[in-house]
Amino acid sequence: MSQSAAHTEHFDATASKIGMWLFIFTELLLFGGLFIVYSVIRFNNQIAFHLAAQELNVVMGATNTVLLLISSMTIAMAVSAIQFGNKKFTLILISTTILIGLIFLVNKYFEWSIKIEHGLYPGSSVLQGFGNGDTLFFGLYFFMTGLHALHIIAGVSILGWVLVRVARDKIHAGHFVHLENGALYWHLVDVIWIFLFPLFYLIT
Amino acid sequence: MSNPEKAHIVPYHTYGIILVTLLVFTGLSILVTSFELGPLAVSAALLFASMKTTLVFLYFMHLKFDKKLYSIMVLVVLLLFLIVIVITFLDYSFR
Fold it and tell me: Where in the sequence is the domain holding B76, given as residue range(s)?
């Protein structure tokens, strides 16, 4: 019984996608919870947050926003390309998305390095001198952008796996739900950044 | 047997238009928050972020073209999140 079942090629794309969406919901609520924490702490430390947010580089944040938006488009296009049966273009689009994800991380590395050089990191003596509000702002900044960066690393890894499977024809025009789910995850990472950017960089 | 994954294929230019719109919204949110508007700037920035998210959900994540089930699921979760925000807000406003 179980042997014959193992040999039958049965795949439910809808179930697979529902599973991915359910996972995305847990991620949305995870970051949603953090946004609520941010709002409450900001409400209680308005002046400190106003001053601390001015330390962040809007140009750097905006660059990363633009990068993620472009990468979201390229991976969305990859889902269309695979359906058109254009394998080469699909591979180019997934590779571009991965490359942009890596550039995002390099930017993030430089951004964090500058902050740490200036002594703006959780537990630093500089921040302790500023007081609680600034400590909370930078604590949240490093935790939330750090957790987001981990999601970028996860997304790049997933898309790398998808890339290999497209190259080996495991993912093709008749069976591409893994590419779709990988793309959904990448868009989620984009959506989280869409909120992180104004909350930390724009609102001062 | 018909292809179970056969769905609406979104043309490339649709994604191009969405990207341009997203970039314009990003530019506008930077512009709006560059003025000293106080609480109004916060609302404006969050409004632009919500509009961008809506576009990403509908087009990039295919909710507009996929089965309605996914959209209903997303709306339920957003409603749940909204309820939590409202309860937290009420809690902090009336302490």
Answer: 66-95
